[in-house]
């Protein structure tokens, strides 16, 4: 009987606007199933979910869009973040309520897929997600690039962007926990090459020269 190969699961983490999504998208172009934990969190905060009811019960209707129209009410994540951003206890409570649902959803997506998987999660190392990953990659960037990305992609003012970046300076990454550290302050073509070379190190049967044009190295 042919031995079944273990599924490749890469965990991506890093600070806000560090370039995690760019690396995930490169891996997706190479045949990976990309899972964005932040996007999954959007799903678990949807109306009629247990998380929705718990969060509204804790913070009240002030975090809702259309609070006077129950059929249209939805959690405004930007408004919610303002409540938990400067309140460590509130943030811990929110994570304790939402993370089990997020992790369960991610595990289900992994089980249902035959593809190699990449999980993008800023909280990768502080949750059970880390134990799912055979490889853990840390994506880093300089502060000015992070600020520029936040302004460009999220429409934040320079002041708001600086506050967001500064708030994460207290995060101390243990570099020994990671299989790779990727500096994303490079052109996209160079970033793609970095990713392919890392995949080549993981699997000696891959040759990065064959996949520079976007060919999927994991297709049969």
From TrEMBL:
- GO BP, sorted A to Z: coenzyme A biosynthetic process
Which reactions fall under this protein's catalytic activity? 3'-dephospho-CoA + ATP = ADP + CoA + H(+)
* E.C. number: 2.7.1.24
**Where is the major localization of this protein?**
cytoplasm
> Signal peptide position in this chain?
none
Cellular component terms (Gene Ontology): cytoplasm
Question: What family is this?
Answer: Belongs to the CoaE family.
Family annotation (SUPFAM superfamilies): P-loop containing nucleoside triphosphate hydrolases (SSF52540)
Q: Which Pfam families match?
A: CoaE
Q: Which UniProt keywords apply?
A: ATP-binding, Coenzyme A biosynthesis, Cytoplasm, Kinase, Nucleotide-binding, Transferase
**Compartment annotation:** Cytoplasm
Against NCBIfam families, the record matches this protein to:
dephospho-CoA kinase
Q: Does the keyword Transferase apply?
A: yes
Q: What does this protein do?
A: Catalyzes the phosphorylation of the 3'-hydroxyl group of dephosphocoenzyme A to form coenzyme A.
The positions annotated for binding ATP are 17-22
- Please give the superkingdom of this protein's source: Bacteria
**Class in the EC hierarchy, top level:** transferase
The protein's matches in PROSITE patterns, at most eight in alphabetical order, are given as: DPCK
Q: Which organism is it from?
A: Flexilinea flocculi
Q: In which pathway does it act?
A: Cofactor biosynthesis; coenzyme A biosynthesis; CoA from (R)-pantothenate: step 5/5
A single GO molecular-function term is: dephospho-CoA kinase activity
This protein is called Dephospho-CoA kinase
């Amino acid at each position: 009987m042919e031995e079944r190969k273990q599924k490749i699961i890469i965990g991506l983490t890093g600070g806000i606007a560090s370039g995690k999504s760019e690396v995930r998208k490169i891996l997706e172009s190479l045949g990976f199933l990309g899972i964005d934990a932040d996007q999954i969190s959007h799903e678990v905060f949807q109306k009629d979910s247990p998380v929705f009811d718990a969060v509204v019960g804790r913070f009240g209707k002030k975090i809702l869009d259309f609070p006077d129209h129950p059929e249209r009410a939805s959690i405004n994540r930007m408004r919610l973040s303002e409540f938990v951003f400067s309140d460590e206890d509130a943030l811990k409570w929110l994570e304790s309520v939402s993370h089990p649902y997020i992790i369960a959803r991610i595990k289900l997506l992994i089980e249902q897929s035959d593809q190699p998987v990449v999980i993008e999660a800023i909280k990768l190392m502080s949750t059970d997600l880390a134990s799912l990953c055979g490889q853990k990659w840390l994506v880093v960037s300089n502060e000015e690039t992070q600020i520029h990305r936040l302004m460009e992609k999220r429409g934040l003012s320079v002041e708001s962007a600086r506050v967001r970046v500064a708030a994460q300076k207290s995060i101390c990454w243990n570099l020994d926990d990671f299989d790779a550290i990727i500096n994303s302050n490079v052109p996209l073509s160079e970033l793609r090459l970095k990713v392919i070379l890392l995949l080549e190190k993981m699997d000696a049967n891959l040759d990065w020269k064959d996949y520079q044009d976007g060919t999927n190295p994991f297709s049969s």
